[in-house]
Amino acid sequence: AQSVSQHNHHVILSEAASLELGCNYSYGGTVNLFWYVQYPGQHLQLLLKYFSGDPLVKGIKGFEAEFIKSKFSFNLRKPSVQWSDTAEYFCAVISSSASKIIFGSGTRLSIRP
Amino acid sequence: GAVVSQHPSWVICKSGTSVKIECRSLDFQATTMFWYRQFPKQSLMLMATSNEGSKATYEQGVEKDKFLINHASLTLSTLTVTSAHPEDSSFYICSAKGLALTDTQYFGPGTRLTVL
To answer: Please, what sign has the CA dihedral across residues A19, A87, A48, A8?
Structure first.
């Protein structure tokens, strides 16, 4: 069965620091990949998605993610974080043979002002 | 982006009563809707997937007689928690997507259920 792993449960950074959140999935076929963000008290919002083409995907609010097929990874990055990036971040995968999206356990990002 | 709404956003009920939560796609036709449950500081747990006009597909361990799902139209799905108990207290989130696999899945704001 496909699964998604987010190894960082809680990341604490200072403002202007660079961010990289890890995401690995287990599925050998074609996948579509997503990063969602959940700000405190708000609903899930799509940050970015990868379906095909350029493995480096640009999302909203300065986020990007790189799909590395050989490593089964889709890490999220941002060169300089802001206090407003404090949120829960979820990586998600949907395989070409499945109709449902599988979420990782989430990474809580706390930014110190 | 597309909008998915949920109603109510917050409900408190007595143990043994039933609660209905509505999920609507406001500006697109949702061929498929999903219902999730989220416990504090945890990820979303998929409860069931419903396609318009057909019976929902429940995930392993989810009681279909307890959590009744109806997807009567392309813009509305309902989740009814029957004979609710305190352990059913949780945050319930719906999401909706169109027909194509590449369609983005949009999430509702969630409904917080508290069973006394």
So the answer is: positive
B49 DSSP β-pair partners: B34, B57
Per-residue pLDDT 10s for chain B (116 aa) are 668 999 999 999 999 999 999 999 988 888 889 999 988 777 788 999 998 888 899 999 999 999 999 988 889 999 999 999 999 999 999 999 877 666 778 899 999 999 99
Asked if B44 and A103 come within 8 Å (Cβ–Cβ), the reply is: yes
Chain B residue with the nearest C-alpha to that of A38: B109
The residues on B that touch A, with CB distances below 8 Å, are 1, 32, 34, 41-44, 46, 49, 93, 95, 101-102, 104-110
How close is the nearest chain A Cα to the Cα of B86, in Å?
22
